[in-house]
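Q: Here's a chain of 322 amino acids. Please give me its 3D structure as tokens.
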Amino acid sequence: MLTFPDWKQKQILFIQTDRKAKNRLFFRNENIVFEKDEKIINQASCHRVLAVFIIGDFSLTSGIIKECRKRAVSLFLLGNNFNVYGSVVANANGNYMLRMAQYSMGSSKEFNIAKYLIFNKFINQESLLKSGQKLMEAEKNSRFRSIVEKAQNETSLLGLEGNFSKVFFQKYFKEVGWLRRMPRVKPDIINFLLDMGYTFLFNILDALLSLFGFDTYKGCYHKLFFQRKSLTCDIMEPFRCIIEKQILKSYHLKQVDPKDFTIVGRRYVVTYEKSQKYAKIFMEALMEEKEALYLFTHQFYRYVMGGETDFPVFNINNGKIE
């Protein structure tokens, strides 16, 4: 299992390929090496790497895949639209006691976990609204949170979460021209950036949960569905605010430039030259919260295993797990 001191030293590598060059990633002398046209561009010790995100066409050696599995480094292959089309995720499948605890969990405990996660999400969304002086909307969110505590089943909880998310996005992104949330459709720049940021968040959490030994397909709030990593979707909920906060911050800092985007088939995409700019923005935001990501997952692990520990709560205001 990944320890906290090890996690603090971990890095996430982001590699943008060059369409005009021969790009290659391979393993040499305990290092992951990025080569372009047979010239070494960069390298990093495999002992300090958690995950590697590769954008665009690439050549991978069998050696790098073998060594990444051996050293618990996850590889994620992304298209130019930032959708993940392939991955090699390091995991701890041998943690059978954790898997048994997951599979034998009763419906009552699963529902309580779902409520904890959505309650935490609402707390952080309320904090974002307050930080943006949207006080009236924050008060409305408080009422939603009180209703969550009284939710009787998954259907009512899904309805509450969906209704408030709609209100939250409208109010939080109103000043930058919000229309509506349309996942994966990317009809505007904000939806594109949300999808992009959530993609990085999802895969970092998926890698982290896998290193603890969780079956990331077995969720509590998001139920079993073919090929969906429902548990990773669950644990994302309290942390989505990191991406939402960063997007509005980037607008205020003038980091988001409409000229960086083009429209292809009614979908917004970032230009090839500018893709690394936005990836760096999200990676830095997530790495600022990497201790919280680990501590939340570790405390969640202990909770599932039946230890005497409270369910973790992530506080977006101070980055702490309470």
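Q: Can you summarize the key feature?
A: Residues 119 and 145 are 6 Å apart (CA to CA).
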